[in-house]
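Purpose: get a first structural picture of the assembly so the mutagenesis plan has something to point at.
Setup: two entries, given in the order below. No constraints added.
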Amino acid sequence: MTDTATLPAGALPQGATIGILGGGQLGRMLSVAASRLGFKTCIFEPAGDCPASHVANYHFKAAYDDADALLNFARSVDVVSYEFENIPTAALDLIQDHSTIRPGRAALSTSQDRLTEKNFLSGLGLRTAPYADITDLASLTKALETFGTPAILKTRRFGYDGKGQVRINDISEAAAALEAVQGAPCVLEGFVPFSCEISVIAARSPSGEVVCYDPGENVHSDGILRTTTVPSTVPAPQRMDAVLMAAKILNALEYVGVMGLELFVTPTGLVVNEIAPRVHNSGHWTQNGCTTCQFEQHIRAIAGWPLGDGTRHSDVRMENLIGDDMDRLPALLGSNAAVHLYGKADVKTGRKMGHVNFITP
Amino acid sequence: MTDTATLPAGALPQGATIGILGGGQLGRMLSVAASRLGFKTCIFEPAGDCPASHVANYHFKAAYDDADALLNFARSVDVVSYEFENIPTAALDLIQDHSTIRPGRAALSTSQDRLTEKNFLSGLGLRTAPYADITDLASLTKALETFGTPAILKTRRFGYDGKGQVRINDISEAAAALEAVQGAPCVLEGFVPFSCEISVIAARSPSGEVVCYDPGENVHSDGILRTTTVPSTVPAPQRMDAVLMAAKILNALEYVGVMGLELFVTPTGLVVNEIAPRVHNSGHWTQNGCTTCQFEQHIRAIAGWPLGDGTRHSDVRMENLIGDDMDRLPALLGSNAAVHLYGKADVKTGRKMGHVNFITP
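Result (structure tokens, whole complex):
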């Protein structure tokens, strides 16, 4: 590219305002990345003193069903993105008449519902865990007979960090499991014997350019991500498969922005766990492992700017700081690790307070 | 250090508020670094819509002689720092009764006045350009006769980016030079035949711990920094000398925070050009060359937190984007460089709009 290059058609100008639904740590780090590119940011988040508001130009402190606030928000920004996928459909309906939503509605409606998501993935020819639509005890019993146990009953909507999930170890637990999800529409997922989980953080621009980061290897406990390590232990050809699967999904959704794709590594190949239409906890390592991190990549994509260089220059192990992990802060500050804190006032059990990137050049 | 370590005595707690005098790009990048460590930030800056206000929690938009605003600012923050050294003494007098100022008054009063600074450096046994206190044409003529020409007449106070300086090529220009500085107290600096300029970015904690970054090599034009390159072409023993000089200055001033030290490399050794009691343009490369950048290092120091790892993991060439350099933005975004923009609305000749770090791992 020469010095006479121009920004792509439709690119946001310098100083435009990026709107973000959600004011948690992902919104916070998106705001910081947007500022690095000279953009202003506007957060929509019901909670006051939220992590993203500390580093944003504006904060609409209003509920997601406050139509006036949503309209004002949509009118005062140049593009709308989000840090979580469970945004009420009515809110999106209001916003879309006044601003561009990126990633678009297709990505959101697909990932908001586990059944829709699995049907979509299967339709692309990608493997998922065996799954079944569960509407009552009869359908659950039938699915358990087919898949065997253990299996996991998951609410179709509003699940995150292991919430909205019940593990079923024996078919006799079926009724109790249904009770635990309080009649919410569900899918049953059969057990996938996997050796590890990896995730691909991938970005797509409005013109269809795709950039993927090196897949990281994830370790969870209690349903919450604990560590992501790059490079993963997965052989190079399988890492390449993972990247191609991510690209296939991005293109099918005409996606704009960064997506997180979680994959199980099994003896017979890769199985999709789930997709997240946003920056992802398992991509935090990119902040210290790449020139362009996932947050800046997302901002570049939704602004219609050229995607950045996602080449990994260092080996990284990302570790989440959850609840009492904060007691380790003084020791971590004295190490050669990169510490990232979210500005949350109270330490609570299970609460993500920050993360650390341990780097080996 | 073990996992049972605690923060040093006097360290600011999680969520404390950092006050910063000045709302330009240095304040902006300090705010972002503070947020990464979970701190809130409060900017004091007379101009509205200033770069730092975009990423800060609070913005006192008031003049530096607004005593009420200064007192409110000082009372609402846990420590006060600054992004420029020419803060009116009266403002500091008001603030210091209500908050800790870091770096302290000694660093400020020394660096605010070129004559005081040069006397201080000479007193430490460090070499400076030959200099003389200039009060009138007689003292100027005498100094020019001693140093020869070319020489540079500099106002003792309020100089930056080449402002407040007049080059004197012949003794006959003495009267015109004095007229150009409009009777401001001045020093005359004799010519130093240097092969290049390097700068050391160094940090000191309240307990006296010192961390220095690898000295970078600077290229100026029209009195404004254009590029900084690490590693420099200067041999390792001289780089070590530079680091030791920085440490000597930090300790003598009982300095807390990050300092920039500019040095001329001459055939007979290193000569101090000037010191800046703050993060420095020539340290921007650390954002993409080190785990802990100069901005985070400054925040760690003034918060009384352990200093971070300043080891350089990559080779970097930092290039300022000044005025029309912004025309290169599309091409730069398409390269593998790291782009940092300051959110300034208008492109003006000579205005620092951003910078770019070109990285080789």
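Chain A has eleven helices and 17 strands.
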